[in-house]
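Final report, results section. Input specification for complex C-07:
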Amino acid sequence: MINIHLILFLAFGAVAVAGAVNLLAQTHPINGALSLIAVMAALAGEYLLLGAEFVAAVQVIVYAGAIMVLFVFVIMLLNAGVEERTKGSRVAIIFGIPGMLLGSLLIAWAVLRYSGTESVAVGALPGAPATIGELLFHEFLLPFEITSILILIAIMGAVVLASKPHPIPQGKER
Amino acid sequence: MPIWLYILASVIKSIIVLFVLLTAVAYTVWLERKVVGHMQNRWGPTRVGPFGLLQPAADGIKFLFKEDLTPPHVYKPLYIAAPLIAVIFALTSIAVVPFGNPVVIGPLSVGFSHPVVIGPYAIPLQITTDVNTGLLLILGVTSIGVYGVALAGWSSNNKYSLLGGLRASAQMISYEISLGLSLVGVLIMAGSFSLNDIVKAQQGHFWGFIPRWNIFHGQVIGFFIYLIAAYAETNRIPFDLPEAETELVAGYHTEYSAMKFAMFFMAEYANMITVACVATLLFLGGWNGPIFGPYILQAILPVFWFVAKVFVFLFLYIWVRGTLPRFRYDQLMAFGWKFLLPLALFNLLATAFAVAW
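Structure output:
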């Protein structure tokens, strides 16, 4: 029997990997940003397959719809040109690509060897918004609140950095 | 329900909804030209067909046969992709919108010698089934639609287009926050993201005659925040700065012609219709309304009320267009961030306290 979930999983995975490879291969920043959006959207599809529909929707709204828009916005505003291609160092090609393959094989082996061999069932995660809300506000309340303070600090830092520099008072230039 | 029936029902529903949506897009354009014309003491389209009713068909043919110019200085892949992105995501977001109660089909007996009984099956009046996160899906799909406008502006390689695209994306990100927060009040009251549940929560009347729609149920501020933010999201007057003729020629679609321009045009009106559908479902009670008469009428009336409310909302859009001037860009941003966002937060807080109490 053909398992439609497996097919969908492989399809979304293929899109995500292809998007990531394309992100590295593209020379134009805006194409890179668009490939990253494709990766985000494919990941949202994978979350949906796991049954985490809320996380999938938030993934699309926040990452693909808001954060990446800002990326594209900045690229458009700076009008960044095509990046210059160098041949690259020979060391990177000779050692880098086999090293990367070896590393990913090692990680895959370690994960398969030392974790439970049970694969996650389709729709296994608690995906309903109500469940997530309960988890966030009961079990994980402290981490949730600490994260929100962290984000607040980051926002305030961004405002301080982006605001106009204070004019130097007279006679204090040196 | 067997899988083949499910697929068949989905395909039929998709075709019907797409047909109705595209027709509605065409006739919203006609309605706008006609209504704005009468508001300005003109006739609007009158030549093609009675009352100019065939004008959309004439426009469509014109768009198809005009020369499709591609300026030499554009970045071609994205220049072609941008109108596609805009129109695809504008048309997709209608998929989770329910138009009425599920229709029960059957039990039917098929065949003569050995009749097979089919059903009864309840077929939901929306393309997808009742998804638990329907509203979030609409928000997600419409938030991707920003790329169409932004990329069109950038890939045209023209300063007016670029400024239009930048304005559009900045405006859409800014007002999306207020839009989302204005919806949260309704979500708290219904306790669900499912659009069907939200409509069901609005059944009944206060004191026997005022319908329990959310707009009469403490969400008046929420409704007006949604209204304003939705006008900004769809780049309509008084927030149509991305295509302000006096400053930017035509904004992000300056360099587009023929069918590519028509795609942006269609996307704008399809977005208006989606926004009107969401407003109807969340604030105006969806398909709730007086239901009477024989069985057939009872089945049709909910859809009729839904369409009537969407029409009223679209008429309001056109009315506002005929009435208000355009904002200045700094006014738009200051209004969105310094007035609308705090107001939406206040509305959310007040709703939360009211529900908890």
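The mean pLDDT of chain A is 80. Chain A touches chain B at residues 30, 34, 37, 41, 53-54, 57-58, 60-61, 64-66, 69-70, 72-73, 76-77, 128-129 (CB under 8 Å). This concludes the modelling results for the funded period.
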